[in-house]
Amino acid sequence: MPTNLTAAALLDEAQDALEAGDAERALDLAIEGARLAGRGDDDELQARLAFVEGQARLALGDSRAALERIAVAVRAFPDDLDVRAEEAGALYELARFEEAADLLERILQEDPEDAGAHGLLGLCLERLGRIDAAERHLARARELASEDFPDAVSLSPDAFEKVVEDALAELPEPVRRYLENVAVTVEDLPEVEELLASDPPHSPSILGIFRGSPLGDKASMDPWNHFPSSIALFQRNLERYARDREELLEEIRVTLLHEVGHFLGLDEDQLRDLGLD
């Protein structure tokens, strides 16, 4: 961490770190910048640092804390569409789909060509059951930015199940033995109640989830422990994540292994070390 930079310089470095995909470094820089900025009376600088901190926290999956920091920037820059778009992203991650959709519709009134706003609005409307409108916005996002919003790869339910079965068959025999009493299912999308049962909440775009407690540990207070252990893969999210059939097949395998890892008691850091993040 730099020790002799000004708050403004730390803001620049934090923004560069975000662009480079290093959210953890961006977060550290933004927090340190905010500490330094707090010694002065530059409210705008403090708000910009809060915004970058919120972006970093959102990228790291802490959507609740992200929204709190982004709200500081919203109060300072209520008409900044980039700030409001990040606010909408945080609301979506918190499964507050109606609020996010209202905000995204206002953004699109100001900038009808914002592909990101169309794409996220489509996802929100889908979760709200407004399927026709959701498809229109998702299609518009693809028209405006095909690289960022490629056509979803689609498998039939039977074909998807077959890929999952093949991935299970590739697991080592001892692991398959452990999984004999663990149901592995394919579902369309995660339920909101399940997303909000975690703290911070799970993203609505999660690819899979392990329900229950790890092997040999039934003392957890997780509410899903009242049910038999199971693994769910979310077909629509997986199909949207992949850019082609080959990537989809690989991501199904990786997601299954990731959730099996949770069943075996591995945490996120250990899964990342194994290349299963």
Please provide a written account of the structure.
By secondary structure, the chain is mostly helical. The protein folds into 2 domains: 7-144, Alpha Horseshoe (Serine Threonine Protein Phosphatase 5, Tetratricopeptide repeat); 157-273, 2-Layer Sandwich (Zincin-like). It is built from 14 helices and 3 strands. It has helices at residues 7-19, 23-37, 43-59, 63-76, 81-93, 97-110, 115-127, 131-144, 157-169, 173-178, 192-196, 235-241, 245-263, 268-273, and strands spanning 183-187, 208-211, 230-234. A 3-stranded mixed beta sheet has the order 1-3-2. Helix 5 (81-93) runs antiparallel to helix 6 (97-110) and helix 7 runs antiparallel to helix 8. The radius of gyration is 21 Å and the shape is globular. The two termini are 26 Å apart. 36% of the residues are buried. The model has no long low-confidence stretch (mean pLDDT 89).
